[in-house]
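Write out this protein's structure.
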Amino acid sequence: MPYVWQLRDQSVKPPSKTSDSATIVNALLAERGITSDEERDLFLHPDYYRDVHDPFLFAAMRKVVDRISQAITENESIVVYADYDADGVCSAAVLVSSLKALGANAVTVYIPHREEEGYGLNTKAIEKFIAAGVNLLITLDCGTTNIAEIALASESGIEVIVIDHHHVPEEMPNSYALLNAKMSNETYPYIHLASVGMAFKVSSALFKDRVANNPDELEKWNIFEKWLLDLVAIATVTDLVPLHGENRVLLIYGLLVLNKTKRPGLAALVALSGGTLGNLTAESIAFQIGPRINAAGRMGDAMKAYELLMADNEEDAIRLAKVLDESNRARQRLTQEVTSAATKALANNENKNVLVAVGDDWPIGLVGLVASRLLERHNRPVLVISRTSSGLVGSGRSVPQFNIIEAMHAVPELFIKFGGHAQACGFTLPDDNAVEKLTKHLNELASKKFFEGMQGPVLALSAVLELRHINDDFFQSLQQFEPFGMENKRPIFLFGGVSVVSCSAVGAEKKHLKLMLSDNQGHVATGIGFKLGSWYKKLSLGEPIDLAAEIIQNEWRGNYDVQLRIIDIRKALP
């Protein structure tokens, strides 16, 4: 569906030649709501010791630290129960590494199988822990909604600490302690940490507590804490939490650690994915490292990803990296197959407000990815549902204008279970009748909410620029805003009335577009448009066009040049 171009601030015109960088930097900061000198300094010049908050600001942190310390001292049996995605796996690696370094000898990890056990705590797992004599259960990236399972554990003598960052329901589990920055009574000043950030905070608090009793160990634990930041960076990016405030600080310092990582598994995975230690960015995590870690849980056993992160020798690291890489390749193939099948399932209802695709035995780990692809294609909320032996398991993705989890909360009786966020959800339905009722409810609600007159996805443009801005100095000014990601998107600029000097379709299947451009002032620039190869036959040399594009730095055989990454094209407006 075609983009609707929208300039964020109509007053932002091409900057003068004498104030290019300053003008655009100020405009981009204002776009992010950064207006004061203090906010500007925090964003552009973050400092680890100044800007990372004290973990004991969490209301329940002292209780958590005391209980874990007791378990370590008394050699109690501890189980760390983590979700199967990259956030859960990295959280487990952070916390278990810390517990073992602090002397925990009886700590084990449990990551549920996505297909067989589903998300969160489950009764069968709790029964295993009871039989094994577990004393302390710590959940990571799950647990906030597991009221019955935590009650079973507690009644059987297992104390449960929940460490989570998901939506907080009205009814809370009766756990020994619960750390979730989104709780209404929480005193911690930043609510957007991923679960890996929460696990890091617990580790940091445990180290501070140890140093309080052993001041001569300060340097030791400070160093250990910093080397955990590579895992914090990976999960912060892959879990799509906002990259501002404390998350931005943790990611910036985490990238420094990631590029020097001491983990053989990460080094092997980076090499296998085509990356290079020393040159890794947030995009490297998003497109190379993160998908391979997530693929383990999507395609089979997330424990393989955990084992990779914890590997202590090169042989195991290389072996496990190959397993994750092959899982990712299989995930890519299957995602394409399920996307094709889901597209066929939508053939007769593409004009509905909310699209629902149902299929038999589609891999549960892929339905969210497929929903994301269909959302991008149709600009409509999408549910992709797999009919399995244990019910209809689905995932949904939505547009910003429609809060899909809020819509589901209006009809809780339809679900076996459900949860999620405003634009992403997961759920299980008992039968096809429930699917039909849910589809009707969502479409009626969406029709009332916003869909009438909606034209297409909005492409937000930060400012109007000219080809003269495509140079090293201007690129360096934009680099101050790295790392880019959620709520800190790489800025897209409008270049109006530029002429096509040369045009070619490139790539193995000619799916991409390569352009050379010029303007009436004699400035020349090159650009690449991924998946825009169809424009090759639509453009004529010398023809004026408008571009929506990012400014990037391209590297080829050791040479660097600044160019455009074209997001969209239209015929030049008069």
